[in-house]
Predict the 3D structure of the following.
Amino acid sequence: MNSLGDFVLVSAMLFGIGIYGLVTKRNALRLLFAVEIMINAANLNFVAFGQYAPFASGTATVSNALGQTFVLFSIALAAAEAAVILAIVVVAYRLHKDVDVSELKSLGG
Amino acid sequence: MMVVTVGSAIVALEAEEIVYGAIGLAGSLFGVATLFFFLNAPYVAVFQIAVYIGAVAVLILFTVMLVRQEKWAKEVKPKSLTTVAGVLTGLAITVAIALAVFAANISSFVNLNNSATFVDIGTLISTSDSPVLELLALVLAASVVAALTLSKVERREEQA
């Protein structure tokens, strides 16, 4: 659990699981889970590639901090996205008594 | 930690009850946070635990409890063809990414072994990345307004 390859492998597996969830699931909450897992896979990649580099120069600290800063922004965005999706899920449930996305066919309010 | 992270992600999607799925998701997010610790990024790890497990996972759990209904708490299983297609797509993408990354000879990458401090991250956010921060603040405000508007629309629908 030390080389860059290990982290990238975990990230690729998480991304694959997220894709699997997006393809097979019809429950809106499960789709949200799948998206969150994929976002985490991307975040893990950012931090891993910030920490490992093909060079060891004086700019290393900057590249490391840059990856982490990107992830901080990404986490904040993902939290906002989750809040909006959950609000949509609650409204869809109140209106249709269901959160199965294949049943939600009307987009008109 | 790798096993916990990936295993919890599978539980999140495959658990019978969606409540257990939400707990599995929290476990997976916690696993990613520990991987951030391994990567010398304690600030991001703590942020991840505070925001994802402290806010998002709890928000999801409360939503599940609020709108819980037996009909979809135990959802209908998808057709076997869809499941096979999903597994194949996920596997194909995982293998493709893994092959591409390992073909790029990343084993030559060295660990920089220098943890970015709070000061480094803060300096970056408040100088070159400050427009992004302001944009992010606007997006967050817009999402809060959007969530509030959605709840208002719903009340109007109920009155009608």
